[in-house]
Amino acid sequence: MKLPIYLDYNATTPVDPKVVEAMMPFFTESFGNAASRNHSFGWKVEQVVEDARDYIGSAIGAGGKEIVFTSGATESDNLAILGAAEFYQKKGKHIITSPIEHKAVIDPCHALEQRGYEITFLDVDKDGCINLKQLEESIREDTILVSLMAGNNEIGTLNPLEEIGEITRAKGVLFHTDATQGVGKIPIDVDEMKIDLLSMSAHKIYGPKGMGALYVRRKKPRVRLSPIMFGGGHERGMRSGTLNVTGIVGFAKALELSMAEMASEAERLTGLRQRLYERLTSELDYIFLNGHPTERLPNNLNLSFGYVEGESLMMGVSDLAVSSGSACTSSSLEPSYVLRALGVGDDLAHSSIRFGMGRFTTVEEIDYTAEKMVVAVKRLREMSPLYEMVKDGVDLSTVQWSSH
Amino acid sequence: MAYSEKVIDHYSEPRNVGSFDKSAANVGTGLVGAPECGDVMKLQIQVDPETKEIVDAKFKTFGCGSAIASSSLATEWVKGKSIDEAMSIQNTEIVEELSLPPVKIHCSVLAEDAIKAAIADYKSRNED
After folding, report:
1. Which residue among A158, A163, A354, B63 is least packed, with the fewest CB closer than 10 Å?
2. ipTM field
3. For the structural domain made of B5-125, what CATH number should be given?
4. Is A394 helix (H, G, I), strand (E, B) or coil?
5. CB < 8 Å to B11, chain A
6. What does the pLDDT look like over A108-154, one tens digit per residue?
7. Alpha carbons within 13 A on the beta-carbon side of A236
8. Are B67 and A384 a contacting pair at CB < 8 A?
9. Domain ranges in chain B?
10. Spatial separation of the C-alpha atoms in residues B41 and B33, rounded to whole Å
11. Digit-coded pLDDT (tens) for A152-172
């Protein structure tokens, strides 16, 4: 077992060596511009790009012509939201989303608010689930778009895409989903789920960084977007810019590898997730699971270790690469907005650790992780005034704290 | 974030972790910060009633590595000082000693507050 152990697969993943191998020829030998229509250098890569496009489309039940290549899921989210808002503004200026979406969805929505659009943020319950009835009731005459993610990057909770799609389609509203954490990990079919726009990213599935795509439905309904970048009119005018051929090839290869083992890998990762959870909870008290207990990404476990601060905990497990919702780990000094939206108290938000498991995570690594975590939590609780007070029977909510 | 060697040292081997009986007459307890802010420090001093010298100190801290280090250092510094001398410890000295980055200065402020709160508690319970 090699240290440090990487357990942050929800943040990014290493590029699979087979992906690198597939990409290599397109840096040097086949370096043509896919838009060069008048020589073989262009033709050759154009064909490769179109094959990759077809494959990526097929992996989500779509056609290749419905795939727009982008620089990543952030750009895909921006294009979907800003592009649909601009194009459909005559129909209305109302968009529905949730407070636990990725910032790549929330921030463009806030930008639209400045431009006179109205955004409804649905409520989420303590597990991060939306209420379908509230969604249905929130859709108005002037609603143009509903944007709800497939799986949450912090807490792992899955949205019921099929049920959401039923509602949006029946109401004639576009449905965008940020499926960055979902594609290649959980089954997604844009027709069955009635998805109209879908964002994805290569680097979460062992592909290269800086590569993403947006699925844009072509039929029933035909979705139109105003571009947010202008240039050569590439990607049916929706996204100008020379195609990232190596990235596209790598993305398709990475997705192919993920799809081939999706079901078995999901089962394996769910097993590792359970193992880690059981090991930790059998040794430690005051552990709180963040996110839904079962309706969650197979590879995500987010826990709050009560009365221990997240950054100090990460310091205590320096050979584990995990992430925390603690304010101290963010530049803003605010604890995770996702945990806050779930109603997790700021104290427990400060105590949260996200474990992201992936293709190269082993049982041995999980057991080592559990051991290290238990030791670190116990040590920090020995020096935690809060743990001491709770053990002495003090109700922390009744204490008059001095803020600073 | 990279931590200074001194922060890592205090985090790995914190000095004076523990608690005194807070009802004892010669003990002063300072509890500062708030759980929702991500740091709470409890700093206790044990005072010689004759000389008014701080003979021992203990702490417990919920917080980041810098907060733990700041309070650990504070307990070291107050020991052997008179309560008046301890009152003059400035957070800037803690910042300097631990090489805290700007984003962690509040940890040193909290440690200074904890010292002052502990002394105030001692004084309030030992008024002549």
Report:
1. A163
2. 0.94
3. 3.90.1010.10
4. coil
5. 312, 315-316
6. 999 999 999 999 999 999 999 999 999 999 999 999 999 999 999 99
7. 15
8. no
9. 5-125
10. 6
11. 999 999 999 999 999 999 999
